[in-house]
Amino acid sequence: MKVLFLILLSISTLFSSFEDGREVFVQKCATCHKEYISLNLIKENFFEKNNSLLNLKAPSANMIVWAMMDSSKKIGDPNEPDFQQIQIEKFLKDYLENPDRFNSICDENVLGYYDNKDSMKGKLSEDDYTNLSYYFLEYKDNFKEEITQKKPFLSPEDEEKYLKIANKENKKIIVYATSKTCFFCKRMDKEVFPKGEVKTLLDKNYIFIEVDMDNVSLPFNLQKEYKKITPSFFFVDKNATFSKQYVGSWTLEDFTKILQENK
């Protein structure tokens, strides 16, 4: 039975593709949803301008893809793309035909800016849902932002200097990915890093390296781990071995625990 299912799934895949899904998106979704908005512009719009910059009434396609693939509400397992496609298709059909804010995968911090969504029941066919699922699943591979190659934050020589200090002082390294437009970064800069036990733990156990992601790439081969979310915190040992990544903003209490667990 499982073999038959996989055969049928493979046949379905032959007739579904990113381009088929993109056509559905353009024809039936693009009146409300933009296809792409840069992450920095999104952050500035919501966290600094209260949506006055873009006046978005619905998430862009790349925001939906991030929610599906990388957020805490992500759908399915990326290591099993065939089954992930089925789960995405089911979610799309269920949500678009019975929209419910409490069942949304959107970031709760921006959900309040969006209009209530009308049901799409009868407006999308079964093939449309299948093709849309492939569009979102394959979005990252087919719709790539034009990226200017950024210079590395540290040269190999500078990286070696930091590692020598880490070995000499028996400390780990924290690489802090931030940006000038990151509201939550600014809040942590003010309310977390200089306070109480966090400051003590940082000074005693860590070398803290702040990297502005608007201008440069991460050191210690961490760029491949970066999920394009600020703030992000990367823990590296004194041998330049990456151990953990913590994505997002943290309270004073939670960040203290993170530092204690990794020292």
From TrEMBL:
InterPro entries: Cyt_c-like_dom, Cyt_c-like_dom_sf, Thioredoxin-like_fold, Thioredoxin-like_sf
UniProt keyword Iron present: yes
Keyword Heme tagged: yes
Source organism, top-level taxon: Bacteria
Signal peptide boundaries: none
GO MF annotation: an example: heme binding
Keywords associated with the record: Heme, Iron, Metal-binding
Segments forming domain Cytochrome c: 16-140
Pfam family, one: Thioredoxin_2
PROSITE patterns given in the database record: CYTC
Name of the molecule in the record: Thioredoxin family protein
Organism listed in the record: Aliarcobacter vitoriensis
